[in-house]
What does this fold into?
Amino acid sequence: MDPLKSALYSTTRSAGLKADDPLLLEEIQLFIDDVSTKQHWLILKIENSALKFFSKGNSCGDLLEKIDDSDVFIGYIKCVINSCCKCYFFYFVGGETPAMKKGKAFMFKGAASSMIECHGEIKSTSSKEEFSIEYIEQSVRKMSNDHSWMIT
It folds into this structure.
């Protein structure tokens, strides 16, 4: 990783969120550098007061299999819209997540969302059933003003 970028990512983010895990930094850099969208999404989790890499992949179906109702997931989805690669942030809080964990994760949401520059946020739903491919498509269409866009 470029030393300048490393210094940017290795500091403690706002609200005291630590984002200096080497694997996390490497995966974020790979996600940013991949303009081919072979890496379509990236999921991160908060463990104690640190942001950690959780999973990555290239299909929304796989993304939806990785999240569950018992935790908080922070992530990024890349979409090609009108020949431009755009990144969208999502923050998913499972309905069965303990209240203390929800509160702590919400406190770090802003710091986590600033790790990668995004074009918008896919708002969280209250359950995994509602957080579907159709919901993601609808959210991206609204933000991009491209009502014909679909996940491929």
About this structure: The mean pLDDT is 83. The first strand starts at residue 41 and ends at 47.
